[in-house]
Every structure is written in C-alpha cells, then in structure tokens.
Fold each of these.
Amino acid sequence: MGTKATITINDEGGKPLLRLYKQFDGYIEGGLGEELVDFLKGRYVVDGYTISDEQNRAFAGMGCLSAQVVSHFKERIGNLYIQSLDDDYEGAYNYEISVGPLTDAFEVMRKATNPDEYKELRDGKISIQMTQYGDIVYDGLVDDFTIGLIAGDED
C-alpha cells in the first residue's frame, strides 16, 4: 500500500488553483515533501518577468508554478493525478503551496544595483504548509524549511 498525498497550489489570491494526488511515496522525509521543497527552494513568483527572473528560474505567476510542478513530478503512467478541486480527499500527507505579495519586475530593476540584490528585492516568496495525518507539522517559507523543523515523528 502506498503513502498517499495531495499537493494543493493556491492562486495569488489564496484560492485553490490546482490539486494533485500522489498515490505513493507521499511522505515528507525522503519522499514528496523533500522533493517538492528542493524543486521550489530558491525560486520565487513574479508578476511580469525579466531575463534575470528567467535566469533565477522564477515562476511567472501561480499558473506557471502549477504547470512546472506537474511537469517536474509527472514521470510516467499512474502515481500522480490532477484531482478535481471539488474533491476534498486528503492523503496521509498534504502539501499546500501559496505565495506572498508580488512586486513589479521593472520597479525592482530600477532599485537593484546587482543581480543578487535584484533577487533579494523581489517579493513573491513561496510558502508551504505540510500536514501529516491531519496535523500541521510545518507552515512557513519554502526557503526556511529543513527536515529538522518538522514537529513530531513521521510514521
């Protein structure tokens, strides 16, 4: 029997945009959770993008993030499915992805003096809430996540 999980990606307004169902390997440590964090870590969401955003592997909105998550995780037949937003099924592990406020790319370009400062000035930081058997074990920025922050033991 597999360790089932869901990924819900919210739009910029916080409403569910996409829900994925993963049939096995949905656990956090060494599974979907860590792979999802690794995929999102160091990236951000933009409203209007520049060459710097493309080089930094930013997402052009939550729809772009959603499409890239599906592309990254869908490797073969089965295991990962797009689930109806009306379906309230939850797995043993559930991951909810959101984004904070977005800034205009050209406004940031005018302020930044180098590529590192440009990336730091960009808003659109990605957050993730992880639940394990109904309990929230992490709720914060993807970039701040480490496996040691998980509250409680995984089964």
Amino acid sequence: MNQAGQVQSVNVTSEASNDLQKFQLDLVNEEFNELLDAFWEEERAHIIKESLDLIWVTYGLLHLMGVDVDEAFGRLYASNQSKLPFTYKNGKVQKGPNYVPPFLKDL
C-alpha cells in the first residue's frame, strides 16, 4: 500500500484514522456506483475494471482498519467452502450442514 501513497499503519482509535476510514469508505461507495454504471452499459472490459477498482478501495479500507486482508480472505474462503454440499433456494446458495462461519473478530 505504500507504493499507492497510503498510510502503512494507523492508530484505529485516532481522529485522523477515523477521517481516513470515512474517506476510504466514500471511495468504496464511489467505485460501487461506477460498477453499477458499467454493468448497465454492458461493456465487459469496463465492468472488469470497475469491479477491480472496488476490490482495490475495499482492500484499502480494511488495510486502514489494521486488518490482515489475506488472512481474512483465507478464512472467508474456508467458510464458503464449508457450505458444501449446498442447495439453492430462490436462486441463493443455502448453507449445507457442515457450514462454519468465518471467525474474524481477532483480525
């Protein structure tokens, strides 16, 4: 994140940190809206670009919060895999009997 000119670490209780997190959340909102616009334009390359921008700024928000994003993502992946075998209901994946929610409180 240093190459992008972002703060390496911040005290999450500081006023400056809260301001940075709010700013980053504004970027998440902006990129999400840009993704929606791209989706309705139905331009594949633009959808890909805006999706990746959304991931980028979301990663930045978590970074500012002091989260080890790679660790968190690994836990989320393992949790999603524990949904297997799954079923669909109303077009949505239903968690299987082996589902274990991700533990993220320590991050």
